[in-house]
């Protein structure tokens, strides 16, 4: 089975390696490229905060560039959206990391039940663009927080021939989609009749129903959403 990975290059390579280990053939078509702004994190960390929030391993990758300056903050509580992000934070050096089960609402609930604020706001080290699920949930709970954008995901511009080249002009059986933004980027690609044919029988495997909801014709059939918003559940759909 041939599976298309649409994640950014660094994360996509990890997924491709995992697919190969499971006996699948992996093709890569990264749809976005991260631009890190770790200096924003340093400014935000210099202001009072009671805990850190991270919702992506890309945020941890952005922080890695300033690891030597993070030592005073490694004891600060970190609340991560899921196990992969939590693991990355621990590897970087954070000592007190807790993980939710993979989405913003669950993360807000975890913060509400397990974190006692000390009159300082939470610090959300975020990316752009992003879903606002976490922010809406924190607002509903009345929890104070600040947002610091430490990376942006820039769309990679492809021509029709680029798509065919990345796929080696061979059909794919499944497409992995990890976010609503990725779904929108995929549907906006410049397909023609021959490149559309490469996806004629592909299943579109989405990290959540929210991701699936952003798929548009002709790709909004053969949609499958993971039961849980994590890669383990997503790959189980293949």
UniProtKB/TrEMBL annotation:
Record key words, sorted: Lyase, Porphyrin biosynthesis
GO biological process, any: uroporphyrinogen III biosynthetic process
Reaction(s) catalysed (UniProt annotation): hydroxymethylbilane = uroporphyrinogen III + H2O
InterPro entries: 4pyrrol_syn_uPrphyn_synt_sf (IPR036108), 4pyrrol_synth_uPrphyn_synth (IPR003754), UROS/Hem4 (IPR039793)
Coiled coil: none
Tagged with keyword Transit peptide: no
SUPFAM superfamilies linked: HemD-like (SSF69618)
Molecular functions (GO terms): uroporphyrinogen-III synthase activity
Keyword match Lyase: yes
Documented EC number(s): 4.2.1.75
Broad class of enzyme this protein falls into: lyase
Record-annotated Tetrapyrrole biosynthesis uroporphyrinogen III synthase domain positions: 14-216
Protein's job: Catalyzes cyclization of the linear tetrapyrrole, hydroxymethylbilane, to the macrocyclic uroporphyrinogen III.
Family that this chain belongs to: Belongs to the uroporphyrinogen-III synthase family.
Protein name stated in the entry: Uroporphyrinogen-III synthase
Top-level taxonomy: Bacteria, Pseudomonadati, Pseudomonadota, Alphaproteobacteria, Hyphomicrobiales
């Amino acid at each position: 089975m041939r599976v298309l990975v649409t994640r950014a290059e660094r994360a996509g390579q990890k997924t491709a390696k995992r697919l190969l280990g499971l006996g699948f053939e992996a093709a890569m078509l990264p749809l976005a490229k991260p631009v890190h702004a770790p200096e924003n994190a340093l400014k935000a960390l210099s202001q009072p905060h009671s805990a850190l929030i991270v919702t992506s391993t890309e945020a941890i990758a952005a922080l890695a560039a300033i690891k030597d300056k993070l030592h005073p903050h490694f004891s600060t509580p970190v609340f991560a959206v899921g196990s992969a992000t939590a693991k990355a934070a621990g590897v970087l050096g954070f000592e007190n990391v807790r993980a939710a089960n993979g989405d913003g609402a669950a993360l807000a609930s975890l913060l509400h039940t397990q974190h006692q604020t000390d009159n300082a706001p939470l610090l959300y080290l975020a990316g752009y663009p992003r879903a606002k699920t976490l922010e809406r949930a924190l607002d509903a709970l009345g929890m104070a927080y600040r947002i610091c954008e430490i990376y942006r995901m820039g769309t990679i511009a492809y021509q029709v021939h680029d798509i065919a080249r990345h796929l080696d002009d061979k059909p794919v059986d499944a497409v992995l989609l990890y976010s609503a933004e990725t779904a929108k980027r995929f549907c906006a690609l410049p397909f023609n009749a021959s490149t559309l044919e490469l996806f004629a029988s592909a299943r579109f495997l989405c990290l959540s129903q929210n991701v699936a909801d952003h798929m548009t014709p002709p790709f909004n059939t053969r949609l499958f959403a993971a039961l849980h918003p994590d890669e383990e559940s997503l790959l189980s759909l293949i």
